[in-house]
Amino acid sequence: MRVLLFGTYDTATHPRVATIAEGLRATGPEVAECNAHLGLNTAARVDMLAHPWRAPALLARLARRWVTLALAARRMPVPDVVVVGYLGHFDVHLARLLFGRRARIVLDHLVSASDTGRDRRLDGGPRQALLAMIDAAALRAADIIVVDTDEHRAALPQRHWARAVVLPVGAPAAWYAAARPTVPEEEEEAGPLRVVFYGLYTPLQGTPVIGNALGRIAGAPIEVTMIGTGQDRAEAGAAAAANHRVNWLDWVPAADLPGLVASHDVCLGIFGTGDKALRVVPNKVFQGAAAGCAIVTSDTAPQRRALGEAAVLVPPGDPAALARALIRLAGDHAELSRMRRLAHELAVQRFTPEQIVAPLAARLLPANSTAAAARPSR
After folding, report:
1. Strand order, beta sheet including 312-314
2. Residue range 173-350, CATH number
């Protein structure tokens, strides 16, 4: 079976499609890639879509990338399956145009445009209606719709449920390779608790809650690295201003991020209270666990179901509870070691690339295992 990863995605900022690719390769299919980065992050895409006068710039950029994709695709063998990467709301239509019904089109619908618009605090009315129309058209164009949680599957229109498959976000192999060796709990070294957060500072992530918690633990033996920029960065920084043991980094290269995260003891997840925050398990939770960090994140249904006892869960939007959790881990090195070990073991057992793609592979292989060999190349 031939699988083609297709679209304007950027695995440096959104590694989801890279994880899916790793998993599919491990299950046996031949996996190729046809990718032309759009060069815009999520915030810029949503902003352009929400402001019609900016849409021509997005469409012009998209058209140039599509020419590149179309020319590259014509030089490749005909695929059996085309996986359209994250933020592929428009790319899925090009995939359908290029490959017709000769290939099964899989859309990684990790986030909906309308959901992201609400999370970015766009008002309702025509702009939300436009984003909802973009979502609906993308879903209709796909044969298989990939989501990351049962909650996101339930949020799809019911007519699409039968075509939806749930794949946890998981973590690429580089995160597992970066993990520090575990040591017995009694041998955990004393010293400041090292905590890391990285992200785009969206409302989903609840970074003002993190900032408030960091302000509350000023003076405690806890060193914090906050990585990234975005919508709520200023508010988070102001809330944490009293704590001088916080190091703020705008970002680090994607290749360096696993090692940097693995050098910390605790990886923070998300703490927002919006509808979207209550439906997701973020990539940083899986990546931090794979890298050998203890996980502290919000106590939501999908995160509780995914992580169980292998994470410290605190109520969403509760900086006092987050502060107490960090203070507790800073003062109990045996417990810290135990939580690091549990998180890493869970990631190894359930969230490697090969494991997370199993439901998708089960959908694809029976229908394509015999047809692939007979499919001619261009």
Report:
1. 246-249, 222-227, 193-198, 266-268, 294-298, 312-314
2. 3.40.50.2000
Residue-wise burial string across 337-375, b where 16 or more C-beta atoms lie within 10 A, e elsewhere:
bbbbbbbbebbeebbbbebbbeebbebbeeebeeebeee
- Return the CATH number of 2-170+352-374, one of 3.50.50.60, 3.40.50.2000, 3.40.50.300, 3.40.50.150: 3.40.50.2000
What Cα–Cα distance (Å) separates residue 358 from each residue in 164, 211, 314, 355?
A: 14, 38, 30, 5
84's enclosing H/E stretch is: strand 81-84
Beta bridge pairs of residue 223: 194
Give the separation between CA 354 and CA 59, rounded to whole angstroms.
Answer: 35
Q: Which amino acid appears at position 16 of this protein?
A: R
Cβ proximity of 182 and 161 under 8 Å? no
Tokens, residue 15? 């590694």
pLDDT in tens, the chain (378 residues): 999 999 999 988 888 999 999 999 998 889 999 999 988 766 666 666 556 567 787 788 889 999 999 999 999 999 999 999 988 999 999 999 999 989 999 999 988 877 766 665 555 667 677 788 889 999 999 999 999 999 999 999 999 999 999 999 999 999 999 998 766 666 666 789 999 999 999 999 999 999 999 999 999 999 999 999 998 999 999 999 999 999 999 989 999 999 999 999 999 999 999 988 999 999 999 999 999 999 999 999 999 999 999 999 999 999 999 999 999 999 999 999 999 999 999 999 999 999 999 999 999 976 444 333 333 333
Encoded tokens for 237: 């920084």
Tokens of 313: 């869960």
